[in-house]
Amino acid sequence: MIPILGLIAGLIIGIFLPFHIPQAYSNYAAVAILAALDSVLGGFSASLEGKFDIKVFLSGFFGNSLLAALLAFIGDKLGIQLYLAAVFAFGNRIFINFGNIRRKLLKLDEMK
Fold first, then answer.
1. Tens-place pLDDT, residues 53-89
2. 101, 44 contact by CB (below 8 A)
3. What is the pTM of this model?
4. Cβ–Cβ < 8 Å for 41, 96
């Protein structure tokens, strides 16, 4: 439940506080947001299984975001679009986590 509350709080803050990300940092922000969303959905999935651990969630949240931003930075320095690897990996995991969450929620409805 904590990840969902954090997501809702972040969305509300993002809607009401105008914030502009410069074009030079847009790739870094994009992969960091995808990494964070992947962690939130993974945390929610773990919560549904009763396996949620705040240490694992926080280390994944910040670790994945930093690693994704580092990949984007290295790609910029090398002149290649290395951030696309992070976009693909996190995008894939987001859809997998969403599918798992959906299946778990549907099974919960069947149990009632």
1. 999 999 989 998 888 888 889 999 999 988 898 899 9
2. yes
3. 0.77
4. no
